[in-house]
Amino acid sequence: MSESFLTFLGIYFLCWFKFISGPLLGSLAGYGVGKTILVTVTGTMSSVFVFTFVGQYLKKLWNHYFPKPKFTKRNRDIIKIWNKFGQLGIAFLTPLILTPIGGTLILVSFGTKRRRIYFHMLWSSTMWSTIFAFTIDNILAIPFFENLLLQGIG
Predict the structure, then answer these.
(1) Cα(112)–Cα(61) distance, rounded to whole angstroms?
(2) φ and ψ at 110, to 5 degrees?
(3) How wide is the angle at C-alpha 53 spanned by C-alphas 103 and 99, nearest 5°?
(4) Where are the transmembrane segments (predicted)?
(5) How high is the pLDDT of residue 153?
(6) Global pTM exceeds 0.85
(7) Residue 70: Cβ-neighbour burial (10 angstroms; 0-12, 13-18, 19+)
(8) Where are the alpha helices (DSSP H) in the chain?
């Protein structure tokens, strides 16, 4: 396998767990904005597809062993976001403060249909990866940061 394919694959798998790794590492790997968006969205959506199925299983397992809901500060914050913004709010905030897995499991736990999860996570990951890719690409084009990066590599 070529080194460029392994780099793409590594970034792809990191996007399963942390969204920002795609735009950051894609730009640092020298990818253009389009390829950075592609690797970020495909990695995120792969995670969403897998965890919509795993999430339903985990939800059944969790409810079997822990039937009473546990309220923590984080759970209350998630419920506040859900009550205020619903599916859109969770999908919108997933790349910013949640992980693709976390956002997917939250949507699954609230009983959102898979089709809706895929749709909302797709537009959210596409929008945020585009914003992040262009922003990071423009920041790295500033001579100060470009020189700083080259000094770090060399």
Answers:
(1) 18
(2) -90, 5
(3) 20
(4) 6-25, 37-58, 90-110, 122-145
(5) 60
(6) no
(7) exposed
(8) 3-17, 21-28, 33-65, 73-97, 100-109, 114-140, 143-153
Q: Which residue has the tokens 């089709």?
A: 115
pLDDT at 68: 64
In whole angstroms, give the CA distance from residue 69 to residue 11. Answer: 36
For residue 148, give both structure tokens.
Answer: 């700083």
Q: Count CB atoms within 10 A of the CB of residue 12.
A: 20
Q: Which tokens hold the place of 61?
A: 């397992």
Sign of CA dihedral 38, 39, 42, 44: negative
Kindly report the backbone phi and psi dihedral angles of residue 67, in degrees, each rounded to the nearest multiple of 5, phi listed first.
Answer: -70, -30
Task: Give the pLDDT confidence score for residue 2 in this predicted structure.
Answer: 86
In whole angstroms, what is the distance from residue 149 CA to residue 96 CA?
25
Q: Output the pLDDT for position 120.
A: 94
Going from the first residue of the chain to its last (154 residues), give the mean pLDDT of each consecutive group of 10, the final group possibly shorter: 87 93 90 94 94 81 72 78 86 89 87 92 96 91 76 61
- Rounded to an integer, what distance in angstroms lies between the CA atom of residue 141 and that of residue 3? 24
Interatomic CA distance for residues 86 and 91, integer angstroms: 9
